[in-house]
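Renewal narrative, Specific Aim 1. Our central claim is that a sequence can be written position by position from structural information alone. The example that follows is taken directly from our test logs and has not been curated for this report. It begins with the structure tokens describing the chain, in the order in which they were read.
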């Protein structure tokens, strides 16, 4: 397909352990890539993908649709304008649809070698990306993960405390064990609180705020379509897609402990 059709963009939807080889092959063929999460299973694989990109493209991008909904766009705009004051505290509670044992009967799920991680990396990663798009880079993480109920190699629940470069702090819970299904994010700023309750995707009605300035100018749900539109705009301009970056010198090597400061 790459040789015959010479596609401009390839959307990769295969199991995680196949992503790196397929992304690199597409990039080397001159095609941009839009890959389902997780992009890869290690920082070494991330470096291999970055090395296959050209200085002016083709580029790889990851499906992180939650940062592209109008609610997230509006929140970032209000922050940039200083309307909400500086960010102070954030809460993220991700209780996804319970994954029964049968869910993990698919051979590549629940293993380090083929899935690369548990629900933190495979499900909660979307909320994590949106939180990073709003609060910016993190500096320190203290976390624990556990297998409380499912017979898997990886975790079925994780918890973390995060300190961001701005000084803001966040509390994070990610679980596939709760009978109640909901993703909840709360952002406390010096002058306002913004909250989001949803499951797998949101519209403007899922957001609320104590600020009278909260009024998104349009209602764009968080969806593949919202991100794809911005990806295609970047393609036409020949620019790196929004939210994608190369790994910088501040990032840890593959063997660094998760509980040490990032800098």
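The sequence written for that structure reads:
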């Amino acid at each position: 397909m790459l040789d015959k059709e010479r596609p401009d963009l390839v959307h990769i939807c295969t199991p995680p352990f196949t992503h790196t080889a397929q992304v690199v092959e597409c990039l080397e063929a001159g095609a941009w890539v839009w890959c389902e999460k997780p992009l890869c299973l290690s920082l070494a694989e991330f470096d291999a993908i970055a090395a296959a990109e050209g200085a002016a493209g083709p580029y790889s991008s990851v499906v992180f649709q939650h940062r592209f909904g109008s609610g997230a766009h509006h929140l970032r705009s209000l922050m940039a304008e200083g309307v909400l004051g500086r960010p102070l505290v954030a809460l993220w509670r991700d209780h996804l649809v319970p994954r029964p044992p049968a869910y993990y009967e698919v051979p590549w799920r629940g293993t380090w070698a083929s899935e690369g991680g548990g629900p933190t990396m495979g499900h909660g990663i979307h909320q994590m990306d949106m939180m990073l798009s709003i609060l910016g880079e993190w500096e320190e993480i203290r976390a624990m993960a556990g297998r409380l109920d499912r017979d898997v190699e990886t975790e079925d629940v994780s918890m973390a405390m995060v300190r961001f470069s701005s000084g803001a702090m966040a509390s994070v819970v990610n679980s596939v064990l709760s009978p109640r299904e909901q993703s909840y994010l709360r952002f406390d700023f010096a002058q306002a609180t913004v909250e989001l309750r949803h499951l797998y995707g949101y519209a403007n009605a899922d957001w609320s705020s104590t600020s009278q300035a909260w009024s998104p100018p349009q209602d764009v749900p968080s969806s593949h379509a919202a991100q794809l539109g911005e990806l295609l705009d970047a393609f036409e301009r020949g620019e790196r897609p929004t939210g994608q970056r190369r790994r910088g010198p501040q990032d840890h090597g593959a063997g660094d402990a998760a509980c040490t400061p990032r800098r």
